[in-house]
Amino acid sequence: MNPNLSDWDDDLPPEPEEAYQDLLRALRRKLGFGLFFVQCTPVEADNFIVKLPQEIPQKKIAVLRLVEAIDNLYQPVAEFVKDKQIDILLIKGLDYSLYKYEKRSFGEITEGQFSNLTSVPHILNHLNQQRERFRDDFTISFVFLLRSFSINYFIHRAPDFFDWRSGVFELPTTPEVVEQESNRLLLEADYKEYLKLSPEQKIDKVLEIQDLLAEKHQPEIRKASLLLELGDLLTTAKEYEAAITFYDQALKFQLDNHQAWDRRGVGLGSLERYEEEIASYDKAIEIKPDYHEAWFHRGIALKDLGKWKEALASWEKAIEIKPNDDSTLNWQGNVLNKLGQSEQAIICYDQAIALNSNHPHAWYNKGNVLCKLGRNEEAIASYDQALKIKSDDYEAWNRKGNALFNLGRYEEAIASCDQALEFKPDYHQGWHNRGNLLYKQERYEEALASYKKAQKFDPKCQSGWNELGSLLLKLQRYEEAITSYDQALKIKPDCHYAWYYKGAALIKLGRWKEGNKSINKAIEINPYFVKDIFNTQGKQILTNLLQKLGLQKLVQITTTFLRIIIFRH
């Protein structure tokens, strides 16, 4: 093997021992400054770090391990070698510096699209610009231990630095190492742990799996398992299209893999492709009829399609297979509540809690149903249980505030909303709810400040603009009220409520013609709406007019009639 050939990566890989001996000979011969690139997996790198001092005892060897992304390599090298005699410096972990700055999707990264990368990672710019400084200041052989992915980065994005290479060596992996590393990755596989990884760590693991998939010694059955893990990692990164691609690849190796069909369904559901999602779960169930996860996920998909009863049937099957599944019981409760079966929903939540008393969602959902039924004391107790488990659950704090207000415990209610906002300051619904509570207490200026905060965090909330407008109208701030209703009408042009009260504000300002036009627009959209805003006597008058004159006549007499009502109120 000639390490200086520019087309080194097109050569057939040598036998492991031959590649290793080539590298040893090159390092023994090299004196002074040199750049060596060694393509290897992280495990091979660790093995190499241990073996090299034993193979070349005459050379002083040191290891610089990088554990996070850096922009400047010169400085850490200078500090590391200061007052040390070093012939060979092994550098491991530079890969992290490449992941951080390339803002691309996982799919593009893992497809190896190096020639059309949109930017150069900072570390490679640094190396391109500082290569003479490295040569002049360090009489050391630098050995970069890198994955193939990272070496390709150097080739395409750091050509000035890479052109000074003293050699590029690939250490092919033995069948034993392939098996050992594959089994380790599969044993460590855990979706919840993947969620905790940083983006750089996820990419690192993705590339580690891809390196193993590319090994010629990798059997197909193990490839299917590794592809599943690749799909799961991409799912945690919300790269659902790429995840589905890897699940499909796994199925090419193992068509009867029920887990691959199930996880593929989860990815499709995240893309809201619900019909395809259900078909994928059905395939998993066809292969393994007692596969609980597929029945459970199928129920979620049916729920998302609004097929409540079918969802319940799917979850019944999931519970039949796994009776102690508190998550399924919780979901059943949610759908039963949607169907108006509140008491049955509470039974499901209680069953879920009996199986897992630390299920915060079951406690929270039970509280919501109890509050809806007017059982506010019980609801508060349920929210408190949820908050014991998850004290930063801002939604539970917010809902508890509603229940407290229903009991007339106003200050406690507002304090509960404040607690929600402490945990999530941009929580639109929390600010909105706080505004409602203050409004009911006639603390209008404070309510106004809360409503404005709510709309700041969610300016597309049409009902929020309406409520803000109503409060401004009450405070006789008519111009601001009109502006608020206009915002509501931008979001929902056929909102009769906003048209009507905008008209009321215009009339209050003496802009009779505009006000009449706005009110007539409200009646045109919903002719019966005015019945809900008149007093008892006004309702009766309107009813008589409707019966005698019909809706068309009602529109004609709207101006005079509504002016009287507006000024009476």
Polypeptide structure, described:
It is a single chain. 69% of the residues lie in helices and 5% in strands. It is built from 31 helices and five strands. Helix 3 links the parallel strand 2 and strand 3. The longest helix has 33 residues, at 536-568.
Low-pLDDT stretches: 1-13, 107-117, 535-546, 548-556
Neighbour order of strands in the largest sheet: 2-3-4-1-5
Main pleated sheet: 5 strands, parallel
- Overall shape: elongated
The quaternary organization reads as single chain
What Rg is obtained from the alpha carbons, in whole angstroms? 34 Å
User: What fraction strand?
Assistant: under 5%
Contiguous helical run count:
31
What's the N-to-C terminus distance? 94 Å
Number of DSSP-assigned strands: 5
Helix content: 55-70%
Question: Structural class, judged by helices and strands?
Answer: mainly alpha
The overall pLDDT average reads 86
Would you summarize the structure shown here?
With 569 residues, the protein is mainly α. The protein has 31 helices and 5 strands.
Could you outline the blueprint of secondary structure elements for this entry?
Elements: H1 16-29, E1 34-39, H2 42-55, E2 61-65, H3 74-81, E3 88-92, H4 95-101, H5 106-110, H6 122-129, H7 131-137, E4 141-146, H8 148-157, H9 159-162, E5 165-170, H10 175-188, H11 191-196, H12 199-213, H13 220-236, H14 240-253, H15 258-270, H16 274-287, H17 292-304, H18 308-321, H19 326-338, H20 342-355, H21 360-372, H22 376-389, H23 394-406, H24 410-423, H25 428-440, H26 444-457, H27 462-474, H28 478-491, H29 496-508, H30 512-525, H31 536-568
Parallel strand pairs: 1-4, 1-5, 2-3, 3-4
Helix pairs in contact: 4-12, 12-13, 13-14, 13-15, 14-15, 15-16, 15-17, 16-17, 17-18, 18-19, 19-20, 19-21, 20-21, 21-22, 21-23, 22-23, 23-24, 23-25, 24-25, 25-26, 26-27, 27-28, 27-29, 28-29, 29-30, 30-31
